[in-house]
Design goal:
The longest helix has 21 residues. The chain is globular. Strand 11, helix 8 and strand 12 form a beta-alpha-beta unit. The protein is an alpha/beta fold and 463 residues long.
């Protein structure tokens, strides 16, 4: 089929159906630096490159679909967060966004700490050489085995998420003859402006111990009474993909109020607060994320002001960026399989991946950008929906986007800002093989998480 052989779907913004899209960009060939990692560009052929390597060469060597992670960008973002918060604060990379042994080594080398929320993440962190004292262990239902290992290896902090967990951690620590440093996670009643499933500080959800009704104050009392625990602070996390700092201001105020109550009741000033993560990134050109230095300045000012008002010494601040570091550093490369125009609606573009490598669109109604990257095109834009190859009508990668109307099977298209949660949440739905993660830096590419094989699938199926 030639590149003009199929009838195109709607092309003009004034006749398009309602959807999630905005007007088509002035030039579809431009790769917006807001949503692409910093070494992505187009070469003299019009082919997109990352780390100096063309996506056509990457596709030939590593296949598609595949995640390509810009190591230079990842390391630069780690440094930016560390420099923004300085030596008087702690930055914990949230490993749930994406974790591998290579990433752990980069974090260690760039001076960041690591937040894990499962035994598997802890195992990966330790296997890659992250010092246990630089690890925080999260989770709303940690098993006895996970707690035992975390205390045994000496993780720097365990975040307590329930009254039962206070007792469990204390019991394990005493049985091992240790005193475990802990924080108590509180829900502060802040309604973050984000999707319901990733808002975490309102009271009707599974995380934390509510400030309302004095539950958090009671959790502090219990933790302070137990010899196996060293209560070092309070933890709060209000949600994910947040751009507005107002929620953090309300959260910090309520956490500081709790610190003041602890001081007044127990004569103890807890030395740390963790304000969590959740800062948003640009998935589309319409998103406007904040710079780490701006975030650090705002959080320091908020906490200092509230502590001064309460007559407290300013505690050490911790933050937990995950998506904000790894999200923008990677893109997913797909090959176009079929193109199906629907007259008066849009054109469906099917790729060789889908919800098995990016569930976020189906799960959160997440929005993404997409670009033709194996060449440039001067064809007019057409409204498309990029979909996967799975047997689900909800198998959507990019709900509404503009691509050139001469798009053809075999073209390479890429979805930027897929570093966070895409590989972490990838599945074997329809027995799909999870894609590899390939790190690219200074003209070299190497697999850091290999592509699954059919042998991998069968190895677990014991018949």
């Amino acid at each position: 089929m030639s590149r003009s052989a199929h009838p195109a779907g709607p092309r003009h913004a004034d006749v398009l159906p309602e959807g999630h899209y905005s007007a088509p960009p002035a030039d579809l060939n431009v790769l917006d630096p807001k949503v692409w990692s910093r070494t992505v560009a187009r070469d003299e052929r019009g082919v997109a490159t990352v780390g100096g390597i063309g996506v056509d060469a990457l596709a030939e060597e590593f296949g598609t679909p595949a995640y390509f992670l810009d190591e230079t960008d990842f390391r630069a973002r780690c440094r930016a967060w560390a420099e923004a918060f300085g030596k008087d604060a702690d930055v914990f990379y949230a490993g749930k966004a994406f974790l591998s042994k290579a990433v752990v080594r980069w974090l260690k080398e760039e001076g960041l700490n690591l937040d894990v929320c499962s035994g598997g993440e802890l195992t990966t962190a330790l296997a890659a050489g992250m010092p246990a004292e630089r690890i925080a262990f999260h989770g709303n239902n940690k098993s006895e085995e996970e707690i035992h290992r975390a205390v045994e290896v000496g993780v720097g902090r365990i975040v307590l998420d329930s009254f039962q967990e206070i007792v469990r951690v204390a019991h394990v620590a005493q049985s091992l003859g240790k005193r475990q440093r802990v924080q108590i996670r509180v829900t502060v009643g802040v309604e973050a402006h984000t999707h319901e499933f990733i808002a975490t500080a309102h009271e009707d959800q599974k995380f934390g111990i509510a400030l309302a009704g004095g539950q958090a104050a009671e959790a502090v009392r219990r933790a302070l009474r137990l010899d196996g625990l060293e209560l070092i602070g309070i933890h709060s996390h209000i949600g994910s993909q947040i751009f507005d700092m107002a929620g953090f201001e309300v959260s910090a105020r309520r956490v500081v109020q709790l610190l003041a109550e602890v001081r007044d009741e127990h004569g103890v000033e807890l030395p740390e607060i963790d304000l969590g993560g959740g800062l948003g990134i640009a998935y589309t050109s319409d998103d406007d994320p904040r710079d780490p230095h701006e975030i650090a300045k705002a959080l320091h000012e908020i906490v200092s002001r509230e502590c001064e008002s309460a007559g407290l010494a300013t505690p050490r601040i911790s933050v937990e960026p995950g998506r904000a570091i790894v999200g923008p550093t990677a893109f997913t490369l797909y090959r176009v399989g079929t193109i199906k125009p629907l007259d008066g609606l849009r054109t469906y573009v099917s790729v060789d991946g889908g919800m098995s490598d990016n569930i976020r669109t189906a799960l959160y109604d997440a929005e993404y950008s997409v670009s033709l990257v194996s060449r440039t095109s001067e064809a007019e834009p057409m409204l498309t929906r990029v979909v996967g190859k799975h047997c689900e009508s909800g198998d959507i990668v990019v709900r509404d986007a503009f691509l050139p109307s001469d798009l053809a099977p075999g073209d390479l298209i890429a979805v930027p800002a897929t570093g966070a949660y895409c590989r972490s949440m990838a599945s074997n739905y329809n027995h799909a093989l999870r894609p590899p993660v390939v790190a690219v830096r200074d003209g070299e590419a190497r697999v850091i998480v290999r592509r699954e094989t059919e042998e991998d699938l069968l190895r677990l199926d014991i018949g």
